[in-house]
User: What shape does this take?
Amino acid sequence: MTDEQHEGGFRTDMAISVDKGGPRYGEFVESARLFMDRVRAAMPTEELVDDLIDELATINAKLEAVAIDEWNSPSGTRIDLPARGNITLPPYLVNRADATGVDATLRFTRFHLGGNNAAHGGYIGTAFDDLLGMTGALATGKVTRTAYLTVNYRSITPLYTDLSVTTQVTKVDGRKIFVAAQMRDGDRLCAEADGLFIALNPGQP
Ligand SMILES: CCCCC/C=C\C/C=C\C/C=C\C/C=C\CCCC(=O)SCCNC(=O)CCNC(=O)[C@H](O)C(C)(C)COP(=O)(O)OP(=O)(O)OC[C@H]1O[C@@H](n2cnc3c(N)ncnc32)[C@H](O)[C@@H]1OP(=O)(O)O
Assistant: This one.
């Protein structure tokens, strides 16, 4: 990736990769996700907390030594991995993606718990934002930025259940891409969204 491609405050091109971080990078990301779930579910003893702080200090020092800028990191660019290997995002697999929309399968886990075994609404919005951003990118061939995103929560979204997410381009008007999405548990509509994404101009901050 050149300086020109990411001049300004947001990348204007997507540095996709399938090999950064090596063949076991996906396994590393899944281990990190499992760790996040385990932290969320744990009731540790004081002794275990002491022990874990020390072990994590070692791990964090190893990772700090290999930190790299956002434009070149595997996280967010590995298109062969769930959610492009980005642990910030709920893990989803893209089943179909073209200029008209995207079909994905998504699974929330303990880390994404809102309450009463249901997903937190913010993570539902995060999933929609990313998959709709991808939809805008595929519709225009450019990176797009969210202008607005409206989420309607229609019924409880369960954890540890394969959910389907479908997105559609509803209208393109110059740089404006109007999009919609639905999240379902089988036939049941859990949540839906509509949004406006703006295709960035070259160098736009
Ligand atoms: C297996 C296959 C996989 C393949 C994958 C391959 C590739 C995928 C590649 C990449 C994509 C992947 C994933 C996506 C990644 C991330 C998605 C997350 C995106 C975000 O999470 S991003 C962060 C949150 N987001 C912001 O941080 C925005 C802050 N904001 C701004 O940066 C500006 O605000 C901006 C840029 C939005 C617009 O600014 P601007 O200067 O460029 O344009 P301007 O203001 O002139 O608006 C132009 C026209 O839009 C209308 N307009 C604007 N805003 C409107 C609104 N809210 N409501 C109604 N209309 C609106 C105007 O009225 C005008 O309309 P008109 O032209 O008709 O007058």
Q: What stands out?
A: Strands lie at 92-98, 101-106, 113-115, 118-119, 144-153, 163-173, 176-185, 188-199. The mean pLDDT is 93. The helical segments are 25-41, 46-64, 121-140. The CA atoms of residues 101 and 135 lie 5 Å apart.
